[in-house]
Amino acid sequence: MGVLAGVPDLHLPVPRGCYCGLYIEMKFGSGQLSADQRRFLRLASEQGNYCCVCYTSEDAISVLQEYLACSIPALDSAAMYTGRRDLSHPSLSIYRGGKVTAMRTQPE
Q1: Using CA atoms, how far apart are residues 65 and 76, in angstroms rounded to an integer?
Q2: What pTM value is reported for the model?
Q3: What are the residues facing 100 on neighbouring strands?
Q4: What is the pLDDT of residues 36-67, one digit of tens each?
Q5: Burial classification of residue 80, based on how many CB atoms lie within 10 Å of its CB (0-12 exposed, 13-18 middle, 19 or more buried)
Q6: For 16-26, what is the mean pLDDT?
Q7: What is the C-alpha to C-alpha distance for residues 15 and 31, in angstroms, rounded to an integer?
Q8: In DSSP terms, which residues pair with 74 in a beta bridge?
Q9: For the chain, which has fewer Cβ within 10 Å, the N-terminal or C-terminal residue?
């Protein structure tokens, strides 16, 4: 209550690699993204954030660990300007039980 529609469940405003922050939307079972969630994740990704959807806590922990293991921009500023991606999957990915697929960003 009181949160802007579509805002993901988790936000880590810590820059790593070429990303300025991390957004994770948590889903369970056959849960699907709303149009507002898709829109927010797409726009946040376009602004330089790593955005993903995770269906298990293990997947979310894996994303967090991989994200935090990326280079720190202040120490490796070339990462921000070369577009180098340190994560094994691109932004706007869906993690489900250890499998990763690309997220559809258009409303269903």
Answers
A1: 19
A2: 0.83
A3: 95
A4: 999 999 999 999 999 999 999 999 999 999 99
A5: middle
A6: 93
A7: 29
A8: none
A9: N
